[in-house]
Amino acid sequence: MIRLDAATVLLQWSAGGLLFLWVTTRGREVGAGYGWLLRGIFGSMAVGAAVIGLRSETILVREVASSLTATAVLVALVVSVIHRAHIARFPPLLDLIAPSVAAIGLVAGALDAADGGSTMVVSVLRVLVGAAFLGAVTDAMLLGHWYLVQPGLPRRHLNELVRAAGFVWPAEVAALLLPTGMISVWSGAVDDGWKGQLGWFWAALALATIVLVFVTRAALRERYYSAVMAATGLLYLAILTAFGTDLVARAVLAG
Fold it and tell me: How far is CA 163 from CA 91, 210, 212, in A?
């Protein structure tokens, strides 16, 4: 079983988003404003994770990591603003500090939520893979919108994030199937309160997510600019199904 903890979920989302921010901006082709936007969003999530953690069931290492993550994001944001006229001077590795620190907090949160033994490994796997899964899908949608601001940006950046979401999807699903996982909901060993229907709902969400990823990749093969906007619309739906894949499983297994 796992525990659904708002502080850990927010830190997950922040860590994954910040990791794939680095993936996109490391080549220094994306405008500085995109980095400002994502640092603002995911830095705020790290702050939220720290506040919620300190006001509820505090896990000291996680809360310290959340606070340091927010601090690292702020430092990267300030440096980026200073070098806004010369984006090549911004060191991309600066964006890797925050997700690296956040990962330490995620491991601490996962270990605290585990029952011991092999469940510790499964718990850590679910949290770290979940961070990458949510981050890839969210950043892909946000980057798709950024093409409205920077229409000349090469599509390979968006393709890179969409491919990443597709690669992480099998690991995410597998992690949530590991015992005690969603298979136990289908077998009846874990009661979801809906006679197993939430288990099948989760399966539908997981399947819909990977279908949307493949359809998005197909859309991006079209040479017209409108294909990017179509892909962004599909990624809106993918966010809903991806979050459902992660959070529905957590809610059911936490019950």
Answer: 25, 11, 12
Nearest in space to 76 (alpha carbons), one of 125, 38, 127 = 38
Provide Rg for the chain, Cα atoms. 18
3-state SS of the chain: helix, strand, coil percent to 5?
80, 0, 20
| Spatial distance between the Cα atoms of 198 and 183, rounded to a whole number of angstroms | 12
Give yes or no for a cis peptide into 58 (omega within 30° of 0): no
Residues 6+ apart with CB under 8 A from 153: 29, 30, 31, 146, 147
pTM summary value:
0.93
List, for residues 90-134, the tens digit of each pLDDT value.
999 999 999 999 999 999 999 998 876 558 899 999 999 999 999
Q: What are phi and psi of 102, to 5 degrees?
A: -60, -35
Share of the chain above pLDDT 90, in %: 75
